[in-house]
Design goal:
alpha/beta, 2,3-Dihydroxybiphenyl 1,2-Dioxygenase, domain 1, four-stranded mixed beta sheet, globular
């Protein structure tokens, strides 16, 4: 193991592969409050295959959005076809957005307006720093999971 501290990153982002970039961008902007940084075709058409190591990988479109310090890259591939299997929160490599909100009910209503429903009934935390707050995962048809945690009301 090398010594010397962590990687000195200049910029970072989280990338998400989706089937419908337009819907996902709309959800991130209107549903979760992200701002568009850029949307378009890849600058280097060889990069999707070269960077991912997936033979024949080709992007249809990509977008970069930001909320606070969080930057999200949304990718819609032309090739190859997605495996199409929905991952579970317990699967290796699974990820989710977590948003702490003042009003769980208000945020839930906003997500439900985009067709999301909780994966389970909201759970009321019984111990620890979030005691009394409610939490639940909500999943989009694009495979994006959003965890809400917040107070009642």
């Amino acid at each position: 193991m090398s010594e010397g501290g962590p990687i000195a990153a200049i910029r970072s982002h989280i990338g998400i592969t989706v089937a419908d970039l337009g819907w996902t961008v709309d959800f991130l902007q209107r549903g979760l409050g992200f701002d568009m940084l850029m949307r378009g075709q890849p600058f280097d058409t060889g990069a999707p295959e070269g960077v991912t190591g997936v033979n024949g990988a080709e992007l249809a479109e990509l977008a970069m959005l930001q909320r606070g310090d969080l930057v999200v890259e949304v990718l819609q591939y032309l090739r190859p076809d997605s495996a199409g299997e929905r991952r579970r929160p317990t699967d290796l490599g699974y990820f989710h957005f977590a948003l702490e909100v003042e009003s769980f009910d208000d945020a839930r209503t906003r997500l439900e307006a985009f067709g999301l429903t909780p994966a389970a009934e909201p759970y009321t935390v019984r111990q620890g720093p979030n005691v009394g707050k409610r939490g639940a995962y909500f999943c989009t048809d694009q495979g994006i999971s959003v965890e809400l945690i917040g107070g009642a009301g």
